[in-house]
Design a protein that fits this description.
Length: about 170
């Protein structure tokens, strides 16, 4: 299981400690874990951080043997030096054999503002659909207009005992 936490959503240039915990109910030797950053503009940034964020202290990756019921926790102090929206993803993976593996992820969505930070991304206003009125879409006849006869498809051919009747 993977758990990712921040004590608060940071504002611009505010230091915050990101805690990443990996645990398993069974021994899982050779497990790998990492933290990645994704901006709302797209683009995934594994360690090292992108220019908009700085790792002050602590690890972003871990590889080792998990013992059943004994979680491993990592703390990384980070600071965002640009405002924006982020997805911080922590993932862990253990390969069982050539055909099997297990893994888990946890994600924190974060908006970093000048004066404050917020968990989640900014709300967007609802999209109001526009219902076109009959005849308002060019090239599409309204239900009140009959299409020109030359635009109608030909009637289907009908067969009776193998003979086509028109």
């Amino acid at each position: 299981m993977v758990q990712l936490s921040l004590p608060k959503a940071p504002s611009l240039n505010e230091r915050v400690t990101l805690t990443f915990t990996v645990s398993s109910t069974v021994d899982a030797n050779n497990t790998t874990a990492e933290i990645k950053f994704t901006t709302a503009r797209g683009g995934i940034f594994p360690a090292p951080f992108p220019a908009e964020a700085v790792l002050i202290d602590g690890p972003l990756t871990w590889k080792g043997d998990l013992k059943a019921g004994k979680p491993v926790s990592l703390d990384a102090e980070i600071v965002f030096n640009e405002t924006g929206t982020w997805a911080i993803e922590a993932s862990a993976r253990h390969v069982v054999d050539n055909k099997n593996s297990w893994g888990d992820i946890d994600v924190i969505y974060l908006t970093v503002g000048v004066d404050r930070g917020e968990f989640g991304w900014p709300r967007t206003p609802p999209v109001v659909p526009i219902q076109p009125s009959p005849g308002s879409v060019p090239g599409v006849p309204s239900s009140q207009e009959e299409p020109p006869i030359e635009d109608l498809p030909p009637p289907p051919s009908v067969s009776q005992n193998g003979t086509i009747i028109k």
